From TrEMBL:
Pfam families: Cu-oxidase, Cu-oxidase_2. InterPro entries: Cu-oxidase_2nd (IPR001117), Cu-oxidase_C (IPR011706), Cu-oxidase_fam (IPR045087), Cupredoxin (IPR008972). This is Monocopper oxidase-like protein SKU5. One of its GO terms (cellular component) is plasma membrane. Residues 2-97, 180-317 form the Plastocyanin-like domain. Belongs to the multicopper oxidase family.
Length: 347
């Protein structure tokens, strides 16, 4: 139950902390004003309902401007065909002086398979270019209108059978977790014996489905364009540790260089997790100014657990600890780095 005083405006933080399903959020007889997502102030738009995909968060303003009563708050699965009402989330908005319980049917949202609504809403969520966002200069000072793209990753997610087991893949490579964490292998052994840098394609498809440790190079202090292509029948969502995405485009079917003509480079929203619709693609930009070994993965738990991930190695030769601190002296080591440091044959 959420309690409100009549006439007051409240900020609600809505997060999808689930592991599989997108949901549509709405409040009976109340409109919402979208103001923020994942640390970025958005253009303020009024909504009757809001699609929230796995790993995403939003802030909305809600004004208690209705008759003093109780009202239903509902979250229902979207972009999937599910007829089980038991998985609907239902809560109550309670006006402080209300003596009337919530009544009537639950507020209706868009059809669960209404792709046009969902994509249209996603495209309407844009960066507020004039707000300060906790800094003396506005967000719009940082934009992507004239950036030079140094790399393009085209990452296709699909489900394959490898060694008799179902696995999720990126460009036909399903990630195999090594005994040595990639960052330790990179620091102590330059990856030797643990992974082969850029051994697998990041803009095409591996000839055969493979179970491997995929690590790709990201150019330090350069812009990378990442196109996520979803070849599955269900929604997907992607997250890159260490960076945020400028979400510049959504599309159906195959992505091609000509698809860039439809990009929004004027006021794309900046966020940490982005959805990818079944049979479609999502394009983002990221500025790789943070040296390190960064995980790029599906936020859907089953997909991630079964291999839909890779690592992006952003290397800077400058040893300045202000950029990247060296490992602490009491770091617990495992796998190949331990064998190097102790001269033991530890695997």
């Amino acid at each position: 139950m959420i309690k409100m005083l009549a006439g007051k405006t409240y900020r609600l933080r809505i997060s999808n902390v689930g592991t599989a399903l997108s949901f549509n959020f709405r409040i009976q007889n109340h409109r919402m004003v979208l103001v923020e997502t994942e640390g970025s102030y958005t253009q303020q738009i009024e909504l009757n309902s809001l699609d929230v995909h796995v790993g995403q968060s939003y802030s909305v303003l809600v004004t208690a401007d209705q008759l003093e009563s109780d009202y239903y708050i509902v979250a229902t699965p979207t972009q999937v065909e599910i007829n089980d009402s038991d998985i609907n989330g239902v809560a109550v908005l309670h006006y402080s002086d209300s003596e009337t319980p919530a009544a009537g049917p639950l507020p209706a949202g868009p059809h669960p398979l209404d792709r046009v609504f969902s994509v249209g809403q996603a495209r309407s969520i844009r960066w507020n270019m004039t707000t300060g966002a906790g800094r003396p200069n506005p967000q719009g000072t940082f934009n992507v209108r004239n950036v030079t793209i140094s790399q393009t990753f085209v990452l296709r997610s699909s489900k394959e059978t490898i060694r008799g087991f179902a696995r999720y893949t990126v460009n036909n490579v399903s990630y195999m977790t090594p005994q040595t964490p990639p960052k330790l292998a990179d620091y102590y052994a330059n990856g030797s014996g643990v992974y082969r840098l850029d051994a697998f394609p990041f803009a095409s498809v591996n000839p055969e489905a493979a179970l491997e440790t995929s690590v790709v190079s990201g150019t330090h202090k350069a812009w990378v364009e990442i196109v996520f292509r979803n070849e599955q029948e269900a929604m997907d969502a992607w997250h890159l540790d260490g960076f945020s995405f400028y979400v510049i485009g959504f599309g159906d079917g195959e992505w091609a260089p000509a698809s860039r003509e439809g990009y929004n480079v004027w006021d794309p929203v900046v966020r940490s997790t982005v959805q990818v619709y079944p049979g479609g693609w999502t394009a983002v930009l990221a500025y790789l100014d943070n040296p390190g070994m960064w995980n790029l993965r599906s936020q859907l738990l089953e997909n991630w657990y079964l291999g839909e991930e890779l690592y992006v190695r952003v290397y800077d030769a400058d040893p300045n600890p202000a950029k990247e601190l060296p490992p602490p002296g009491n770091l617990l080591l495992c796998g190949r780095p331990l064998s190097i440091l102790t001269n033991q044959n530890h695997i």
